[in-house]
Design brief:
0% strand; 70% helix; mainly alpha; globular; 93 residues; single chain
């Protein structure tokens, strides 16, 4: 999966999160995509290991929000972004 596809996938996933509380309004195609493609990605051993490793850092919500804000305002690839994208998980995605 290339970077553009991954970015689109992530954007769509985030855009859909608020609506998941009322799953009755979720189009069947979106549900199918989440239950197949996204579930496969999320259950990959490489992705699971990366998530566990990141969660072990015990970052606060404020720290996560700060990193997200920095990521969003960065135009080019920062060293942090490059490190994440060249990791085993980044390569898997």
């Amino acid at each position: 999966m290339n970077h553009s596809t991954l970015r689109t996938l992530a954007t769509l996933s985030l855009a859909l999160l608020p609506g998941l509380a009322d799953a009755g309004d979720t189009p069947p195609e979106v549900t199918h995509f989440a239950e197949t493609v996204l579930a496969d990605i999320a259950s990959s051993p490489i992705v699971v290991a990366a998530v566990k490793a990141e969660n072990a850092g015990n970052k606060t919500l404020d720290q996560i929000k700060q990193r997200d804000a920095e990521w969003r305002k960065t135009i080019d690839l920062s060293p942090t972004m490059q490190k994440m994208m060249s990791s085993a998980c980044g390569n898997q995605l």
